[in-house]
Amino acid sequence: MLFKSLLRNIGRAAPTTPARTSTPEELLIEARAHFDANDLVRAQLLFEDVLELDPGNADALHFLGLTGDRARDLGFALEYFERSIEARPRDAVFHNNLGSVLVKAGRTEEAARCFRKALEIDPGLNIARINLIFAMVLLEGVTPEEVYAEHVAWAKIHADPLLQQAAPHGNSRDPERRLRIGYVSADFRQHALSYFIEPALAQHADHWQEVFDLDDAQLARQIRSDGIDILVDLSGHLRGNRLLAFARKPAPLQMTYLAYPNTTGMRAMDYRLSDAVCDPPGMTEGYYSETLLRLPRCMWCYQPRAEMPAVVPPPAQTNGAVSFASMNGADKITAGMLALWARILCEIPASRMVFTTVPEQGRARIRDALTRAGVADMRITMHDRLPTGEFWALYAGIDILLDTFPMNGGTTTCEALWLGVPVVSRSGKVFQSRAGLSILGSVGLGELVADNDEDYVRIAVGLARDGARLAALRAGLRERMRASPLTDARAYARALEATYRRIWRDWCSRPPR
Questions:
Q1: Which of 111, 403, 430, 497 could form a disulfide with 99 if both were Cys (CB 3.0 to 4.6 A apart)?
Q2: Which residue would you say has higher pLDDT here, 238 or 251?
């Protein structure tokens, strides 16, 4: 927050350097060097110096937008991205970057239009197509067929041609030997993914390779050199992914898992790991380019952090009012969800609603939708992104978490349950809208999941009116989770390894190509 203030308000009374005779081009080079070094205040001043000499300089305008985005001052970023597009309207990257900020602000429909405009200008712009397909997953009214087609379109342009580089694999075809499993992710650190993959890695990972400095072709060669038998992608189309290394087919068997709620669209990706609730047999196979593999119980295995706070009694017991919350990002909050939440809040007149991870530029849309539906502004509390400890601490003041649709939460749902907060979810017919059903079903709370809007409202309102049930759920949720498949790391790792062995045996039985 301090840097945001500096970014907007830093003074210009005194020159930042002695008088200079630099050209706009020279200043731009210097400014970009500071930007690349993450010296954002100095970069901003230099980009502004460029604009003093050349007010319509599109690159300076756009880099000021990037500076604001990096500082999470989305209003500043939007202003300068829009000005850069006015200066250079046919720059596809400019439209893409504007769309990225609009997604962060929860204005996903506008963002999708920006990504489509970028692709209209440059159909081969990889990042714009990736951003578009993820935006489509978040939008209401987009069919699974449309989402699948867009993923395949990306793969045909960017990934599938690289499969021609794949050479035959020399891995030993012994079906029972010890396997080499490789996991690839940009998020082996403080990230939501770590909550779910750590239990598996703790059971069988014994070697780490830092590959950040390798490009996709080099990474593919390294994987071949390491003799990986089964290569597991943990990013999908999310930021930092290495799908174009997978596209070169460096391992005999390749699968995608966990982080991304959809297909990769790639011919080189053999499998997608799921479960029979997220992907019921016979229902969703047509939406994946990969063959579905279903773990026998639940595809999720949650590893709670030791430092998470203890469960406290329901706040409604002390303040006399039920507190609902949405702890998912603004990009998951659709107009349809806001309408349902308004109905719930109006049914429970003394209740309030807490939001997190909503930047200032995404708040007016939410407040306007709720207040127009009759929810007083004083009943709405909003937070931007919070440090982890502060985020967890908020759960002490929350009675019921309201899940989003069509994109359900994952980590937020598990965190809420571990901290004693029941979750009401809305399920649909595709993976991203069935994660809540899979997680809640695994802990025996399938009755908190609705398959239509009316039941979603009914379940939430009924739970809010039943103080005894709320208290009982809160008191028992942590033990319920401990006794469920959701936290059974050993059984999860065994099921995962049995799946690896099964597909390896199948590969060994095929004739070499």
A1: 111
A2: 251
Cα separation, 181 vs 227, whole angstroms: 9
DSSP symbols for 348-368: STT-EEEE-S--GGGHHHHHH
For the segment 346-389, what is each residue's pLDDT rounded down to a tens digit? 999 999 999 999 999 899 999 999 999 999 999 999 999 999 99
The answer to whether the CB of 107 falls within 8 A of the CB of 120 is: no
State the average pLDDT over residues 159-163.
Answer: 96
Per residue in 171-200, pLDDT (tens digit) is 999 999 999 999 998 876 655 666 677 777
Pair 151, 288: CB distance under 8 Å: no
CATH code, 2-154: 1.25.40.10
Cβ count near 99 (within 10 Å): 26
pLDDT, residue 188, reads 67
Q: Is 178-301+490-509 assigned to CATH 3.40.50.11380?
A: yes
* Contact partners, residue 26, CB within 8 Å, separation at least 6: none
DSSP secondary structure letter of residue 188: S
The predicted-structure confidence for 120-129, as pLDDT tens digits, reads as follows 999 999 999 9
| CATH classification number, 316-484, choose in 3.40.50.1980, 3.40.50.2000, 2.40.30.90, 2.60.40.420 | 3.40.50.2000
The answer to whether 162 and 186 have CB atoms below 8 angstroms apart is no
Q: How far is CA 41 from the centre of its chain?
A: 29
CA distance 377 to 361: 17
Whole-structure pTM value: 0.90
- Rama region for 249: left / alpha / beta (φ>0; ψ in -120 to 50; rest): left
d(CA 254, CA 242): 13
Give the number of other CB atoms < 10 A from CB of residue 330.
24
| Domains 178-301+490-509 and 316-484 fall in the same CATH topology | yes
What's phi and psi for 400, nearest 5 deg?
-140, 130
Residue 295: exposure state from Cβ atoms within 10 A (0-12, 13-18, ≥19): buried
The neighbour count for residue 490, using CB atoms within 10 Å, is 11
Q: Parallel, antiparallel, or unpaired for β 291-295 and 271-275?
A: parallel
Residues whose CB falls within 8 Å of the CB of residue 99, separated by 6 or more in sequence, listed in order: 110, 111, 112, 113, 114, 115, 118, 128, 131, 135
Classified as helix, coil or strand, 231 is: strand
Per-residue confidence (pLDDT) for residue 14, from 0 to 100: 40
Token pair recorded at residue 281: 């047999």
For the chain, the structural domain boundaries read 2-154, 178-301+490-509, 316-484
